[in-house]
Design a protein that fits this description.
The protein is mainly beta and about 250 residues long. About 10% of the residues lie in helices and about 45% in strands. The chain has one domain: Acyl-CoA thioesterase, double hotdog domain (Porin, Beta Barrel). Strands 1, 2, 3, 4, 5, 6, 7, 8, 9, 10, 11, 12, 13 and 14 form a 14-stranded mixed beta sheet that branches.
């Protein structure tokens, strides 16, 4: 995998097969398109004195391994706080919508909890879809084992060909995997699909590795919640959350 998307101009991108998720080889995992839209939101009215502190992505339907189009705008300009919005469309149909708040940076230094070291062990090497586009280094728990999971992750390539990965894209591309690594039911028998992803950040990520400390809770009635603490090698940087549809396959 070199990049999830090839730019075609005019906000259009061609999707790579490495975007495919675990549910279908024809449908994209939520991570790559969320990271694509997050990068576009960052670039919209970009200001060096601000950072994106909250991103919510709404998954409006299946996203095929095909061409997608990105549109963004500043919906609420501000001196200290502003809001940006974006949409990902496919064949004229909205498939992803996102909104984000940017907040002015200030000079503030606080101690952070230390992150555990990155283990040498790697999981899921050799696969060709989204799972193979990420290096997975588990500390506790792993794919296919129900329960909480603590796992280091690193993207193997770019989100957009020819463009450097931003710290936000590194986080968003893997934050959508919190429910997958901490599932409470087997993938072969149960859907646990998230119609949304919300990421809160209190600082920008540093380095290539992102740590996911994920836990899924499911209640009677088929609704679940996956919560993920996000860290890098310097320590904690934010949190992700996903509402879940849980049902028999």
């Amino acid at each position: 995998m070199s990049a999830y998307y090839e730019p075609l101009g005019g906000g259009r991108f061609r999707s790579d097969p490495s975007c495919a998720g675990p549910w279908s080889a024809d449908d994209q995992h939520g991570g790559p398109p969320s990271a694509l839209l997050a990068g576009a939101l960052e670039a919209t009215g970009s200001r060096d004195d601000m950072m994106l502190a909250r991103l919510t992505v709404e998954i409006l339907g299946p996203i095929k391994i095909d061409e997608v189009t990105v549109e963004t705008r500043v919906s609420r300009p501000g001196r200290r706080v502003e809001r940006v919005e974006g949409t990902l469309t496919q064949a004229g149909r909205p498939v992803l919508a996102a909104s984000a708040w940017r907040i002015t940076r200030t000079q503030l230094s606080t101690p952070l909890p230390e992150a555990p070291p990155i283990p040498a062990d790697r999981d899921l090497e050799g696969t060709t879809n989204y799972l193979g586009s990420v290096e997975w280094a588990p500390i506790s728990g792993r794919f296919g084992e129900p329960g909480p999971c603590l796992m280091w992750t690193r993207l193997r390539g770019q989100v957009v060909a020819g463009e450097e990965l931003s710290p936000l894209q590194r986080v968003v591309a893997v934050a959508d995997s919190g429910n997958g690594i901490s599932s409470v039911f087997p993938l072969a028998t149960t859907w646990f699909i998230n119609p949304e992803l919300t990421v809160h950040l209190h600082r920008e990520a540093v380095g290539e590795w992102i740590l996911l400390d994920a836990e899924t809770v499911a209640s009677e009635g088929g609704v679940g919640l996956a919560s993920t603490v996000l860290s890098d090698e310097r320590g904690r940087l934010g949190r992700g959350a996903q509402a879940l549809l849980i049902a028999p396959r």
